[in-house]
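Request from the bench team (R.T.):
"We need a structural guess for the complex before ordering more flavin-adenine dinucleotide. Sequence and SMILES attached. Just send the C-alpha coordinates back."

Command: build protein-flavin-adenine dinucleotide structure.
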Amino acid sequence: MITVANTRPTVSSIVQSPDFPKQHFIVLGGGLAGLTAAQALLKKGCTVTLIEKGSQVGGLARTFEKEGFRFDIGGHRFHSNNLTVVNWLKDLLKSDLLTVPRTSHIYLNGQFVDYPIQIAKAISTFSPLKAAHMAVSYLASKVTERQRPEVSFEDWVIKRYGKALYKVFFEPYTEKVWGIPCNELSAAWAAQRISIPSFRKMVQQAIAPAKETPATAISEFYYPRAGFGMIPQALEREILDLGGTIYTNTSVLTCTPTSDGFEVAIQHQDGSHQTLRADQVVSTIPLDALLESIPDEWGSQEISQQYDLEYRDIICLFVALKKPQVSRDSWTYFPLKNLLFGRTHEPKNWSSEMVPDGSYTSLAIEIFASRGESVWQMTDDEILNQVVEQMDQIGWTNKADVHRSWVLRVPYAYPVYRIGYQEKLQAVKNYFSQWPNLHLVGRTGSFHYMNSDGVVEDVFRFIEKTFPETAVEVQPLTSATGRWM
Ligand SMILES: Cc1cc2nc3c(=O)[nH]c(=O)nc-3n(C[C@H](O)[C@H](O)[C@H](O)COP(=O)(O)OP(=O)(O)OC[C@H]3O[C@@H](n4cnc5c(N)ncnc54)[C@H](O)[C@@H]3O)c2cc1C
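Reply to R.T.: structure attached below.
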Protein backbone atom coordinates (compact mmCIF):
# COMPACT_ATOMS: atom_id res chain seq x y z
CA MET A 1 0.00 0.00 0.00
CA ILE A 2 1.43 3.36 -0.95
CA THR A 3 0.29 5.99 1.46
CA VAL A 4 2.03 9.26 1.09
CA ALA A 5 2.94 11.05 4.22
CA ASN A 6 3.17 14.79 4.16
CA THR A 7 2.28 17.28 6.81
CA ARG A 8 -1.46 17.81 6.76
CA PRO A 9 -2.31 21.43 6.02
CA THR A 10 -4.79 22.95 8.39
CA VAL A 11 -7.15 25.70 7.38
CA SER A 12 -4.86 28.33 8.85
CA SER A 13 -1.66 26.95 7.30
CA ILE A 14 -2.82 27.54 3.73
CA VAL A 15 -1.60 30.77 2.26
CA GLN A 16 -4.56 32.64 0.83
CA SER A 17 -3.26 34.96 -1.80
CA PRO A 18 -5.06 36.54 -4.72
CA ASP A 19 -1.89 36.14 -6.82
CA PHE A 20 -2.22 33.04 -8.90
CA PRO A 21 1.28 31.70 -8.12
CA LYS A 22 0.27 31.18 -4.49
CA GLN A 23 -3.21 29.90 -5.12
CA HIS A 24 -4.13 26.69 -3.39
CA PHE A 25 -5.60 24.01 -5.64
CA ILE A 26 -7.33 20.91 -4.35
CA VAL A 27 -7.25 18.09 -6.86
CA LEU A 28 -9.95 15.45 -6.44
CA GLY A 29 -8.74 12.06 -7.70
CA GLY A 30 -5.24 10.68 -8.10
CA GLY A 31 -5.54 9.03 -11.53
CA LEU A 32 -3.47 10.21 -14.46
CA ALA A 33 -5.50 13.41 -14.88
CA GLY A 34 -5.27 14.44 -11.22
CA LEU A 35 -1.58 13.66 -10.95
CA THR A 36 -0.66 15.39 -14.21
CA ALA A 37 -2.67 18.44 -13.15
CA ALA A 38 -1.02 18.50 -9.72
CA GLN A 39 2.45 18.28 -11.27
CA ALA A 40 1.72 21.08 -13.73
CA LEU A 41 0.13 23.34 -11.08
CA LEU A 42 3.07 22.93 -8.72
CA LYS A 43 5.41 23.85 -11.57
CA LYS A 44 3.34 27.02 -11.98
CA GLY A 45 4.08 27.90 -8.35
CA CYS A 46 0.71 26.97 -6.85
CA THR A 47 0.23 24.88 -3.73
CA VAL A 48 -1.59 21.62 -4.28
CA THR A 49 -3.36 19.02 -2.16
CA LEU A 50 -4.48 15.87 -3.96
CA ILE A 51 -7.17 13.60 -2.52
CA GLU A 52 -7.33 9.97 -3.66
CA LYS A 53 -9.85 7.49 -2.39
CA GLY A 54 -7.82 4.38 -3.33
CA SER A 55 -4.87 2.94 -1.45
CA GLN A 56 -2.49 3.91 -4.26
CA VAL A 57 -2.44 6.57 -6.95
CA GLY A 58 -2.94 5.83 -10.65
CA GLY A 59 -6.67 5.08 -10.97
CA LEU A 60 -7.29 3.19 -14.22
CA ALA A 61 -3.62 3.65 -15.11
CA ARG A 62 -2.23 1.86 -12.05
CA THR A 63 -0.37 -1.43 -12.12
CA PHE A 64 -1.45 -4.24 -9.82
CA GLU A 65 1.52 -6.09 -8.32
CA LYS A 66 1.57 -9.42 -6.44
CA GLU A 67 4.28 -12.03 -5.92
CA GLY A 68 6.47 -10.70 -8.73
CA PHE A 69 3.62 -10.54 -11.28
CA ARG A 70 2.50 -7.16 -12.61
CA PHE A 71 -0.76 -6.38 -14.38
CA ASP A 72 -2.26 -3.18 -15.76
CA ILE A 73 -6.02 -2.65 -15.61
CA GLY A 74 -6.18 -4.14 -19.11
CA GLY A 75 -2.89 -3.65 -20.97
CA HIS A 76 -2.16 0.07 -21.30
CA ARG A 77 0.01 1.13 -24.20
CA PHE A 78 1.06 4.77 -24.63
CA HIS A 79 0.82 6.30 -28.07
CA SER A 80 0.55 9.92 -29.14
CA ASN A 81 1.17 11.88 -32.30
CA ASN A 82 1.58 14.97 -30.15
CA LEU A 83 5.26 15.76 -29.60
CA THR A 84 4.55 17.87 -26.50
CA VAL A 85 2.91 14.85 -24.89
CA VAL A 86 5.58 12.37 -25.99
CA ASN A 87 8.35 14.63 -24.71
CA TRP A 88 6.51 15.05 -21.41
CA LEU A 89 6.46 11.27 -21.01
CA LYS A 90 10.10 10.82 -22.04
CA ASP A 91 11.13 13.48 -19.60
CA LEU A 92 9.17 11.80 -16.82
CA LEU A 93 10.33 8.21 -17.34
CA LYS A 94 13.67 8.64 -19.11
CA SER A 95 15.37 5.25 -19.59
CA ASP A 96 12.42 3.39 -18.01
CA LEU A 97 10.46 3.81 -21.25
CA LEU A 98 10.49 0.90 -23.69
CA THR A 99 9.36 0.84 -27.32
CA VAL A 100 7.25 -2.25 -27.90
CA PRO A 101 6.14 -3.72 -31.26
CA ARG A 102 2.40 -4.21 -31.59
CA THR A 103 0.71 -7.39 -32.83
CA SER A 104 -2.96 -8.01 -32.15
CA HIS A 105 -5.51 -10.57 -33.28
CA ILE A 106 -9.25 -11.05 -33.11
CA TYR A 107 -10.79 -14.48 -32.66
CA LEU A 108 -13.27 -14.95 -35.52
CA ASN A 109 -14.74 -18.17 -36.81
CA GLY A 110 -12.30 -20.19 -34.73
CA GLN A 111 -9.32 -18.39 -36.27
CA PHE A 112 -7.05 -15.60 -35.07
CA VAL A 113 -7.27 -12.77 -37.62
CA ASP A 114 -5.05 -9.64 -37.68
CA TYR A 115 -6.39 -6.69 -35.65
CA PRO A 116 -7.25 -3.89 -36.40
CA ILE A 117 -9.45 -5.82 -38.78
CA GLN A 118 -8.45 -5.82 -42.40
CA ILE A 119 -11.94 -6.64 -43.55
CA ALA A 120 -10.85 -8.29 -46.78
CA LYS A 121 -8.68 -10.70 -44.81
CA ALA A 122 -11.36 -11.28 -42.20
CA ILE A 123 -13.98 -12.01 -44.88
CA SER A 124 -11.70 -14.69 -46.30
CA THR A 125 -12.26 -16.75 -43.12
CA PHE A 126 -15.88 -17.23 -44.26
CA SER A 127 -17.26 -19.48 -46.99
CA PRO A 128 -17.21 -17.92 -50.50
CA LEU A 129 -21.02 -17.66 -50.39
CA LYS A 130 -21.04 -15.74 -47.09
CA ALA A 131 -18.10 -13.58 -48.22
CA ALA A 132 -19.99 -12.72 -51.43
CA HIS A 133 -23.09 -11.87 -49.38
CA MET A 134 -21.02 -9.43 -47.29
CA ALA A 135 -19.56 -7.76 -50.38
CA VAL A 136 -23.03 -7.41 -51.97
CA SER A 137 -24.46 -6.06 -48.71
CA TYR A 138 -21.64 -3.53 -48.58
CA LEU A 139 -22.22 -2.37 -52.16
CA ALA A 140 -26.02 -2.28 -51.75
CA SER A 141 -25.68 -0.12 -48.62
CA LYS A 142 -24.21 2.65 -50.77
CA VAL A 143 -27.66 2.98 -52.32
CA THR A 144 -30.09 1.63 -49.73
CA GLU A 145 -28.53 3.25 -46.65
CA ARG A 146 -27.58 6.59 -48.17
CA GLN A 147 -30.44 8.45 -46.50
CA ARG A 148 -30.08 6.68 -43.16
CA PRO A 149 -29.75 9.25 -40.33
CA GLU A 150 -26.63 8.75 -38.23
CA VAL A 151 -28.06 8.55 -34.73
CA SER A 152 -26.77 5.26 -33.37
CA PHE A 153 -23.56 3.26 -33.64
CA GLU A 154 -25.57 0.79 -35.71
CA ASP A 155 -26.64 3.55 -38.17
CA TRP A 156 -23.09 4.83 -38.50
CA VAL A 157 -21.58 1.45 -39.30
CA ILE A 158 -24.35 0.08 -41.53
CA LYS A 159 -24.27 3.25 -43.59
CA ARG A 160 -20.57 2.75 -44.29
CA TYR A 161 -20.17 -1.05 -44.35
CA GLY A 162 -23.60 -2.62 -44.89
CA LYS A 163 -25.66 -4.88 -42.63
CA ALA A 164 -23.77 -8.12 -43.19
CA LEU A 165 -20.35 -6.75 -42.19
CA TYR A 166 -21.93 -4.91 -39.28
CA LYS A 167 -23.56 -8.10 -37.96
CA VAL A 168 -20.36 -10.12 -38.14
CA PHE A 169 -17.60 -7.68 -37.24
CA PHE A 170 -18.99 -4.69 -35.40
CA GLU A 171 -22.08 -5.67 -33.45
CA PRO A 172 -20.89 -8.64 -31.34
CA TYR A 173 -17.78 -7.05 -29.81
CA THR A 174 -19.34 -3.62 -29.36
CA GLU A 175 -22.38 -5.01 -27.54
CA LYS A 176 -20.12 -7.15 -25.38
CA VAL A 177 -18.03 -4.14 -24.37
CA TRP A 178 -20.87 -1.76 -23.65
CA GLY A 179 -23.58 -4.15 -22.48
CA ILE A 180 -26.23 -2.29 -24.49
CA PRO A 181 -27.63 -2.82 -28.00
CA CYS A 182 -25.71 -0.98 -30.72
CA ASN A 183 -28.85 0.90 -31.68
CA GLU A 184 -28.74 2.57 -28.24
CA LEU A 185 -25.07 3.55 -28.48
CA SER A 186 -24.45 6.99 -29.94
CA ALA A 187 -23.02 7.43 -33.43
CA ALA A 188 -20.65 9.93 -31.79
CA TRP A 189 -18.70 7.06 -30.29
CA ALA A 190 -18.28 5.33 -33.65
CA ALA A 191 -17.20 8.57 -35.27
CA GLN A 192 -14.62 9.15 -32.52
CA ARG A 193 -13.20 5.64 -32.44
CA ILE A 194 -13.58 3.87 -35.79
CA SER A 195 -11.12 4.68 -38.47
CA ILE A 196 -10.84 1.79 -40.83
CA PRO A 197 -10.02 1.76 -44.54
CA SER A 198 -12.46 2.48 -47.35
CA PHE A 199 -13.81 -0.37 -49.47
CA ARG A 200 -11.38 0.58 -52.28
CA LYS A 201 -8.53 0.15 -49.81
CA MET A 202 -10.05 -3.12 -48.59
CA VAL A 203 -10.14 -4.48 -52.13
CA GLN A 204 -6.58 -3.28 -52.67
CA GLN A 205 -5.53 -5.09 -49.50
CA ALA A 206 -7.21 -8.27 -50.72
CA ILE A 207 -5.54 -8.16 -54.12
CA ALA A 208 -2.14 -6.87 -53.05
CA PRO A 209 -1.56 -6.55 -49.32
CA ALA A 210 -0.07 -3.13 -48.56
CA LYS A 211 3.51 -2.91 -47.38
CA GLU A 212 2.91 0.18 -45.28
CA THR A 213 1.05 0.05 -41.98
CA PRO A 214 -2.62 1.15 -42.13
CA ALA A 215 -3.35 4.46 -40.39
CA THR A 216 -5.17 2.70 -37.56
CA ALA A 217 -2.54 0.04 -36.96
CA ILE A 218 0.07 1.63 -34.78
CA SER A 219 3.05 -0.65 -35.25
CA GLU A 220 4.76 0.18 -31.96
CA PHE A 221 4.05 2.00 -28.74
CA TYR A 222 5.71 3.21 -25.56
CA TYR A 223 5.56 1.14 -22.42
CA PRO A 224 7.20 1.63 -19.02
CA ARG A 225 9.45 -1.34 -18.22
CA ALA A 226 7.68 -2.26 -14.93
CA GLY A 227 4.12 -1.56 -16.05
CA PHE A 228 2.03 1.49 -16.97
CA GLY A 229 1.76 2.29 -13.26
CA MET A 230 5.32 3.63 -13.41
CA ILE A 231 3.81 6.80 -14.93
CA PRO A 232 1.58 7.64 -11.93
CA GLN A 233 4.35 6.55 -9.56
CA ALA A 234 6.84 8.91 -11.21
CA LEU A 235 4.29 11.72 -11.06
CA GLU A 236 3.66 11.00 -7.39
CA ARG A 237 7.40 11.34 -6.65
CA GLU A 238 7.62 14.62 -8.58
CA ILE A 239 4.59 16.05 -6.80
CA LEU A 240 6.11 15.30 -3.41
CA ASP A 241 9.51 16.67 -4.50
CA LEU A 242 7.77 19.87 -5.61
CA GLY A 243 6.17 20.23 -2.18
CA GLY A 244 2.69 18.97 -2.98
CA THR A 245 0.55 16.92 -0.62
CA ILE A 246 -1.08 13.63 -1.56
CA TYR A 247 -3.60 11.84 0.63
CA THR A 248 -4.44 8.29 -0.38
CA ASN A 249 -7.16 6.23 1.32
CA THR A 250 -9.00 9.51 1.74
CA SER A 251 -12.45 10.34 0.48
CA VAL A 252 -14.14 13.60 -0.26
CA LEU A 253 -17.15 14.17 1.99
CA THR A 254 -18.29 17.60 0.87
CA CYS A 255 -17.10 20.26 -1.51
CA THR A 256 -18.78 23.49 -0.39
CA PRO A 257 -18.63 26.64 -2.54
CA THR A 258 -17.62 29.77 -0.61
CA SER A 259 -17.36 33.42 -1.62
CA ASP A 260 -13.73 32.99 -2.68
CA GLY A 261 -13.28 29.30 -3.39
CA PHE A 262 -14.26 26.00 -1.81
CA GLU A 263 -14.16 24.25 1.52
CA VAL A 264 -13.44 20.57 1.03
CA ALA A 265 -14.22 18.18 3.88
CA ILE A 266 -12.33 14.90 3.69
CA GLN A 267 -12.20 11.69 5.68
CA HIS A 268 -8.98 9.74 6.17
CA GLN A 269 -8.76 5.98 6.52
CA ASP A 270 -8.50 6.19 10.32
CA GLY A 271 -11.90 7.93 10.35
CA SER A 272 -10.52 11.39 11.15
CA HIS A 273 -12.02 14.36 9.35
CA GLN A 274 -10.35 17.47 8.01
CA THR A 275 -11.56 20.60 6.23
CA LEU A 276 -9.32 22.21 3.63
CA ARG A 277 -9.66 25.56 1.89
CA ALA A 278 -9.09 25.87 -1.83
CA ASP A 279 -9.03 28.80 -4.20
CA GLN A 280 -9.68 26.39 -7.04
CA VAL A 281 -10.76 22.76 -7.33
CA VAL A 282 -9.78 20.37 -10.11
CA SER A 283 -12.17 17.44 -10.20
CA THR A 284 -11.17 14.22 -11.94
CA ILE A 285 -13.60 11.99 -10.01
CA PRO A 286 -16.83 10.60 -11.50
CA LEU A 287 -19.47 13.28 -12.09
CA ASP A 288 -22.00 11.60 -9.78
CA ALA A 289 -19.44 11.54 -6.94
CA LEU A 290 -18.74 15.25 -7.42
CA LEU A 291 -22.47 16.06 -7.50
CA GLU A 292 -22.97 14.14 -4.25
CA SER A 293 -20.26 16.20 -2.56
CA ILE A 294 -21.97 19.55 -3.26
CA PRO A 295 -24.36 20.41 -0.39
CA ASP A 296 -28.10 20.39 -1.10
CA GLU A 297 -28.54 24.14 -0.68
CA TRP A 298 -26.71 24.54 -4.00
CA GLY A 299 -29.44 22.65 -5.84
CA SER A 300 -27.25 19.57 -6.29
CA GLN A 301 -29.97 17.17 -5.23
CA GLU A 302 -32.25 18.29 -8.02
CA ILE A 303 -29.47 17.79 -10.58
CA SER A 304 -28.60 14.43 -8.97
CA GLN A 305 -32.20 13.29 -9.38
CA GLN A 306 -32.14 14.15 -13.07
CA TYR A 307 -28.60 12.78 -13.48
CA ASP A 308 -28.67 9.96 -15.98
CA LEU A 309 -25.15 9.38 -17.21
CA GLU A 310 -23.66 5.90 -17.00
CA TYR A 311 -20.13 4.60 -16.66
CA ARG A 312 -19.34 1.05 -17.75
CA ASP A 313 -17.39 -1.06 -15.26
CA ILE A 314 -14.94 -3.87 -15.90
CA ILE A 315 -13.75 -7.03 -14.16
CA CYS A 316 -10.06 -7.86 -14.52
CA LEU A 317 -9.00 -11.46 -14.01
CA PHE A 318 -5.24 -11.70 -13.58
CA VAL A 319 -3.83 -15.19 -14.00
CA ALA A 320 -0.22 -16.22 -13.35
CA LEU A 321 0.66 -19.30 -15.41
CA LYS A 322 3.30 -21.97 -15.01
CA LYS A 323 4.29 -21.92 -18.66
CA PRO A 324 6.58 -19.62 -20.64
CA GLN A 325 4.12 -18.22 -23.21
CA VAL A 326 0.50 -18.32 -24.39
CA SER A 327 0.66 -16.14 -27.52
CA ARG A 328 2.86 -13.42 -29.03
CA ASP A 329 -0.01 -10.89 -29.10
CA SER A 330 -0.09 -7.43 -27.62
CA TRP A 331 -3.86 -7.84 -27.28
CA THR A 332 -6.30 -10.53 -28.41
CA TYR A 333 -9.97 -9.71 -28.92
CA PHE A 334 -12.78 -12.22 -28.34
CA PRO A 335 -16.13 -10.96 -29.70
CA LEU A 336 -18.04 -14.25 -29.21
CA LYS A 337 -20.88 -13.62 -26.79
CA ASN A 338 -20.70 -17.08 -25.21
CA LEU A 339 -17.15 -16.38 -24.03
CA LEU A 340 -17.09 -14.62 -20.66
CA PHE A 341 -14.03 -12.55 -21.53
CA GLY A 342 -13.69 -9.89 -24.24
CA ARG A 343 -10.00 -9.12 -24.46
CA THR A 344 -6.74 -10.52 -23.16
CA HIS A 345 -3.21 -9.24 -22.89
CA GLU A 346 -0.01 -11.10 -22.00
CA PRO A 347 2.07 -8.62 -19.95
CA LYS A 348 5.38 -10.41 -20.58
CA ASN A 349 5.06 -9.65 -24.31
CA TRP A 350 5.39 -5.96 -23.42
CA SER A 351 8.14 -6.16 -20.82
CA SER A 352 10.01 -9.10 -19.32
CA GLU A 353 9.76 -7.37 -15.92
CA MET A 354 6.04 -8.14 -15.73
CA VAL A 355 6.74 -11.72 -14.51
CA PRO A 356 9.15 -12.95 -11.80
CA ASP A 357 11.16 -15.10 -14.23
CA GLY A 358 11.02 -16.40 -17.79
CA SER A 359 9.54 -19.78 -16.88
CA TYR A 360 6.25 -18.03 -16.05
CA THR A 361 3.83 -16.00 -18.07
CA SER A 362 0.52 -14.37 -17.17
CA LEU A 363 -2.72 -13.15 -18.73
CA ALA A 364 -4.68 -10.00 -17.93
CA ILE A 365 -8.22 -10.91 -18.91
CA GLU A 366 -10.90 -8.26 -19.36
CA ILE A 367 -14.51 -9.12 -18.64
CA PHE A 368 -16.89 -6.34 -19.59
CA ALA A 369 -19.58 -6.09 -16.91
CA SER A 370 -21.25 -3.49 -14.75
CA ARG A 371 -22.27 -3.43 -11.12
CA GLY A 372 -25.58 -5.24 -10.68
CA GLU A 373 -25.08 -7.63 -13.61
CA SER A 374 -25.02 -11.34 -12.79
CA VAL A 375 -21.36 -11.70 -13.79
CA TRP A 376 -20.43 -8.93 -11.35
CA GLN A 377 -21.98 -11.06 -8.56
CA MET A 378 -20.02 -14.23 -9.47
CA THR A 379 -17.38 -15.32 -6.97
CA ASP A 380 -13.72 -15.01 -7.94
CA ASP A 381 -13.46 -18.81 -8.21
CA GLU A 382 -16.51 -19.01 -10.47
CA ILE A 383 -15.00 -16.39 -12.76
CA LEU A 384 -11.62 -18.15 -12.87
CA ASN A 385 -13.13 -21.59 -13.50
CA GLN A 386 -15.39 -20.43 -16.30
CA VAL A 387 -12.65 -18.45 -18.04
CA VAL A 388 -10.05 -21.23 -17.77
CA GLU A 389 -12.53 -23.80 -19.06
CA GLN A 390 -13.28 -21.62 -22.09
CA MET A 391 -9.58 -20.93 -22.68
CA ASP A 392 -8.95 -24.65 -22.58
CA GLN A 393 -11.47 -25.07 -25.42
CA ILE A 394 -9.58 -22.49 -27.47
CA GLY A 395 -6.33 -24.31 -26.72
CA TRP A 396 -4.72 -21.46 -24.79
CA THR A 397 -4.34 -22.71 -21.25
CA ASN A 398 -5.82 -25.13 -18.74
CA LYS A 399 -6.34 -25.52 -15.02
CA ALA A 400 -3.02 -27.30 -14.49
CA ASP A 401 -1.16 -24.23 -15.85
CA VAL A 402 -2.72 -21.85 -13.31
CA HIS A 403 -0.21 -20.81 -10.65
CA ARG A 404 -2.13 -17.94 -8.98
CA SER A 405 -5.06 -15.70 -9.83
CA TRP A 406 -6.59 -12.44 -8.65
CA VAL A 407 -9.86 -10.70 -9.54
CA LEU A 408 -10.25 -6.93 -9.54
CA ARG A 409 -13.66 -5.33 -10.01
CA VAL A 410 -13.10 -1.84 -11.41
CA PRO A 411 -15.99 0.65 -11.45
CA TYR A 412 -16.13 3.73 -13.69
CA ALA A 413 -13.94 2.24 -16.44
CA TYR A 414 -15.63 3.86 -19.46
CA PRO A 415 -18.07 6.75 -19.96
CA VAL A 416 -21.03 5.30 -21.87
CA TYR A 417 -22.03 7.30 -24.93
CA ARG A 418 -25.67 6.25 -24.92
CA ILE A 419 -27.83 8.13 -27.44
CA GLY A 420 -28.76 11.50 -25.94
CA TYR A 421 -25.82 11.56 -23.51
CA GLN A 422 -24.54 14.87 -24.93
CA GLU A 423 -27.60 16.83 -23.76
CA LYS A 424 -27.50 15.19 -20.32
CA LEU A 425 -23.78 15.86 -20.01
CA GLN A 426 -24.27 19.46 -21.07
CA ALA A 427 -26.92 19.94 -18.36
CA VAL A 428 -24.54 18.65 -15.69
CA LYS A 429 -21.67 20.75 -17.05
CA ASN A 430 -23.93 23.83 -17.14
CA TYR A 431 -24.69 23.28 -13.46
CA PHE A 432 -21.00 23.09 -12.52
CA SER A 433 -20.12 26.05 -14.74
CA GLN A 434 -21.64 28.43 -12.14
CA TRP A 435 -18.24 28.03 -10.41
CA PRO A 436 -15.48 29.21 -12.75
CA ASN A 437 -12.92 27.98 -10.21
CA LEU A 438 -14.15 24.38 -10.45
CA HIS A 439 -12.52 22.51 -13.33
CA LEU A 440 -13.65 19.13 -14.69
CA VAL A 441 -10.62 17.42 -16.18
CA GLY A 442 -9.67 13.98 -17.56
CA ARG A 443 -11.61 11.00 -18.84
CA THR A 444 -13.60 10.14 -15.74
CA GLY A 445 -13.98 13.73 -14.50
CA SER A 446 -15.17 15.21 -17.77
CA PHE A 447 -17.02 12.11 -19.07
CA HIS A 448 -15.01 12.09 -22.27
CA TYR A 449 -13.70 8.84 -23.76
CA MET A 450 -9.96 9.55 -23.89
CA ASN A 451 -6.89 7.40 -23.73
CA SER A 452 -4.11 8.42 -21.38
CA ASP A 453 -2.37 10.60 -23.97
CA GLY A 454 -5.68 12.42 -24.50
CA VAL A 455 -5.96 12.88 -20.73
CA VAL A 456 -2.49 14.48 -20.62
CA GLU A 457 -3.49 16.80 -23.50
CA ASP A 458 -6.67 17.68 -21.63
CA VAL A 459 -4.63 18.71 -18.59
CA PHE A 460 -2.29 20.78 -20.78
CA ARG A 461 -5.31 22.59 -22.23
CA PHE A 462 -6.66 23.25 -18.72
CA ILE A 463 -3.29 24.71 -17.67
CA GLU A 464 -3.14 26.81 -20.84
CA LYS A 465 -6.61 28.17 -20.13
CA THR A 466 -5.88 28.87 -16.46
CA PHE A 467 -2.50 30.50 -17.08
CA PRO A 468 -2.83 32.01 -20.57
CA GLU A 469 0.06 34.41 -20.01
CA THR A 470 2.53 31.54 -19.54
CA ALA A 471 1.07 29.19 -22.10
CA VAL A 472 3.31 27.06 -24.26
CA GLU A 473 1.82 25.89 -27.50
CA VAL A 474 -0.05 22.59 -27.15
CA GLN A 475 -0.90 20.89 -30.39
CA PRO A 476 -4.59 20.11 -30.95
CA LEU A 477 -6.04 16.81 -29.76
CA THR A 478 -4.56 14.07 -31.93
CA SER A 479 -5.13 10.99 -29.94
CA ALA A 480 -8.82 10.15 -30.08
CA THR A 481 -8.79 7.61 -32.89
CA GLY A 482 -6.55 4.69 -33.57
CA ARG A 483 -8.31 1.69 -32.22
CA TRP A 484 -11.91 0.66 -32.28
CA MET A 485 -11.60 -0.55 -28.67
C1 LIG B 1 -9.57 -1.55 -19.67
C2 LIG B 1 -8.91 -0.25 -20.04
C3 LIG B 1 -7.86 -0.25 -20.92
C4 LIG B 1 -7.25 0.96 -21.29
N1 LIG B 1 -6.20 0.92 -22.17
C5 LIG B 1 -5.56 2.06 -22.46
C6 LIG B 1 -4.41 2.04 -23.31
O1 LIG B 1 -4.00 1.00 -23.81
N2 LIG B 1 -3.78 3.22 -23.56
C7 LIG B 1 -4.20 4.39 -23.02
O2 LIG B 1 -3.56 5.41 -23.28
N3 LIG B 1 -5.29 4.45 -22.24
C8 LIG B 1 -5.97 3.32 -21.94
N4 LIG B 1 -7.07 3.37 -21.12
C9 LIG B 1 -7.56 4.67 -20.66
C10 LIG B 1 -6.80 5.24 -19.46
O3 LIG B 1 -6.80 4.32 -18.41
C11 LIG B 1 -7.51 6.51 -19.02
O4 LIG B 1 -7.60 7.41 -20.10
C12 LIG B 1 -6.86 7.23 -17.85
O5 LIG B 1 -6.27 6.36 -16.94
C13 LIG B 1 -7.94 8.08 -17.18
O6 LIG B 1 -7.38 8.85 -16.13
P1 LIG B 1 -8.31 9.80 -15.25
O7 LIG B 1 -7.43 10.37 -14.21
O8 LIG B 1 -9.07 10.71 -16.13
O9 LIG B 1 -9.40 8.86 -14.58
P2 LIG B 1 -9.24 7.73 -13.41
O10 LIG B 1 -8.07 6.88 -13.69
O11 LIG B 1 -10.58 7.08 -13.34
O12 LIG B 1 -8.98 8.59 -12.11
C14 LIG B 1 -9.98 9.02 -11.23
C15 LIG B 1 -9.45 8.83 -9.82
O13 LIG B 1 -10.39 9.38 -8.90
C16 LIG B 1 -10.46 8.53 -7.75
N5 LIG B 1 -11.74 8.79 -7.10
C17 LIG B 1 -12.98 8.43 -7.50
N6 LIG B 1 -13.90 8.88 -6.65
C18 LIG B 1 -13.24 9.56 -5.68
C19 LIG B 1 -13.64 10.29 -4.52
N7 LIG B 1 -14.92 10.39 -4.17
N8 LIG B 1 -12.69 10.88 -3.76
C20 LIG B 1 -11.38 10.80 -4.11
N9 LIG B 1 -10.94 10.11 -5.20
C21 LIG B 1 -11.86 9.52 -5.97
C22 LIG B 1 -10.33 7.14 -8.36
O14 LIG B 1 -9.93 6.21 -7.36
C23 LIG B 1 -9.28 7.38 -9.44
O15 LIG B 1 -7.97 7.17 -8.93
C24 LIG B 1 -7.72 2.18 -20.75
C25 LIG B 1 -8.78 2.17 -19.84
C26 LIG B 1 -9.38 0.98 -19.49
C27 LIG B 1 -10.53 0.98 -18.52
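Two things stood out. The chain is about 35% helix and 20% strand. Residues 28-34, 51-54, 59-61, 73-74, 76-78, 251-252, 284-286, 289, 314, 366, 412-414, 442-445, 450-453, 455 surround flavin-adenine dinucleotide (CB under 6 Å).
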